[in-house]
Amino acid sequence: MIPASAGTLVITAHLLVLGLLIATAVMLALWTLHLATRNASWVDVGWAGNLGLLAIAYAIVAPGYLPRRILVATVVGVWSARLTLHLIARTVGATEDPRYGEMRARWGSNLDLKFFVLFVGQGVLDALLALPFLFAAIDPAPQIHWLAWLGAGVAAIAMLGEATADAQLRAFKANKRNAGQVCRGGLWGWSRHPNYFFDWLVWVGFALIGLASPWGWTGLLGPALMLYFLTRVTGIAATEAHAVQSRGEAYRQYQREVSAFVPLPPKRGKLP
Questions:
Q1: Rounded distance, CA 144 to CA 136, Å?
Q2: Residue 152: enclosing H or E segment and its boundaries?
Q3: 85 Rama sector, left if φ>0, alpha if ψ -120 to 50, beta otherwise
């Protein structure tokens, strides 16, 4: 465990407050942008971008072992930058993600206030999910534990998988002949949501990095929450409800044949 010295506790508290201030400031700015564009998808941009900002901020100001701080900031920063740029490209000039349209319909009145709570709440969640980055950054141990290297490797492989899935879906949508069709090529022939799976696997990598430092067990919150949200709340459930509504029987057939989350061979026994 981290030594319970007054100095360590003060540094930890200061960094946590710094993280909360950064994350909520970003989300307040994006909430204001959402008011101008009426597109709540900006909350996703802030969620991804904040995590990279926090990892880099902790690496800059924390007093821990410098090579470890650089490793964590690099791994988290690369993941965050790629995902943030991908989400910005998907959001600018586009219609709002159907998930948020459904929220508007369900919430009814006082939408600006309710989305304010959503944006700020995501910022607070970012600060909590970034706790293992904070603890790794203040860890004074003068070596990088093998678990941290393993976590970095898992995260790197997962980032490659997530980027590949996003690129395959983007190419599919760019082809006008695929309008109204279901993407079943590449990784999408093995998982209905390979981007979600690999995003979750990135968080497994982050958790392994965190476990290498005192109090790093807090990093287990990340993959646990991501698995819950991706499979039960804002991820698969909402996305598939919209897909069934827009693509009908073609998507229901896809559901019967292809794994929802973990990439597995399709039940037909061969890729399309």
A1: 10
A2: helix 146-174
A3: alpha
